[in-house]
Design a protein that fits this description.
This protein is 19% helix and 56% strand. It has 140 residues and is of the alpha+beta class. Strands 1, 2, 3, 4, 5, 6 and 7 form a 7-stranded antiparallel β-sheet that branches. Strand 5 and strand 6 form a beta hairpin.
Length: 140
């Protein structure tokens, strides 16, 4: 009876370890469209401004690439604003493999902010997005 229980426990542990490995692999898979995404928040040039600097690179020339949304939060986590990326505001580019630029948010001087930024890239019928949070910065 002890041998059966031990065999069953060992088999169960093996099956669970294989399932866990599959879940980790799915979370760390490479993107079909996004090669890299870097992000930082710095003080702006004028009072109350913070600048979101970003660099999105695609695996090849993308039909569309850039920032789909920027959600601004105060350092305490309270919501401040949302900016949706469009071609019109320059956050989305077409027919290129890289978008390296910045976006300036006008807030309140002396307030600390951070941003949750989502990038996107579409190549043919494949599309992907990634979301990162910036560091916290106090607006001048």
């Amino acid at each position: 009876m002890k041998k059966r229980f031990l065999s069953f426990a060992l088999m169960t542990a093996l099956v669970l370890s294989l399932c866990g490995g599959a879940a980790v692999a799915a979370e760390t898979r490479a993107s079909d469209t996004i090669r890299s995404f870097t992000l930082s928040l710095v003080e702006g040039d004028s009072a109350g401004e913070v600048k979101i600097k970003f660099d999105v690179r695609a695996n090849s020339t993308a039909d569309e690439i850039g920032i789909s949304s920027i959600v601004i939060y105060k350092a305490d986590g309270s919501y401040a604003s949302t900016i949706m990326g469009t071609k019109g505001n320059g956050l989305i580019l077409t027919n290129t493999s890289r978008h390296n630029s910045s976006y300036t948010y006008k807030g309140t001087s002396g307030t600390s902010y951070f941003a949750r930024v989502t990038c996107t890239a579409t190549i043919g019928s494949s599309s992907d997005s990634k979301t990162l949070d910036t560091n916290k910065v106090t607006a001048p």
